[in-house]
Amino acid sequence: MRFAVRVKPGAKRDAVGGVWDGALGEALVVSVRARAVDGAANDALCRVLAAAFAVRPRDVAVVKGLRSRDKVVEVRGAPEGSQDRVGALRNSIVDS
Question: What is the mean pLDDT of the chain?
């Protein structure tokens, strides 16, 4: 399963929720505490999304936008109903 995300590095806490209407369409907003240095934010993004979708961190990969805040991620082996989970997370509001 692939979907667009908007990463907010350097946030107060790790969080998933909200929608960003950006270059890749409607993207799920993911806030991570890690700074965008040496791939730390991308690694944190994979860990946070893995927890949100109950998969291993190695099953989440950035497939587009490694150096951008707007990315496309792939979740391999996503459980049934994960697409609905993305929609629910987009509709939730998280204060990061």
Answer: 93
pTM score > 0.85 for this model? yes
Mean pLDDT in residue range 34-55? 96
SS3 of the chain:
CEEEEEEEECCCCCEEEEEEEECCEEEEEEEECCCCCCCHHHHHHHHHHHHHHCCCHHHEEEEECCCCCEEEEEECCCCCCHHHHHHHHHHCCCCC
**What burial class does residue 47 get, using C-beta atoms within 10 Å of its C-beta: 0-12 exposed, 13-18 middle, 19+ buried?**
middle
Q: Residues 58, 84: contact at Cβ < 8 Å?
A: no
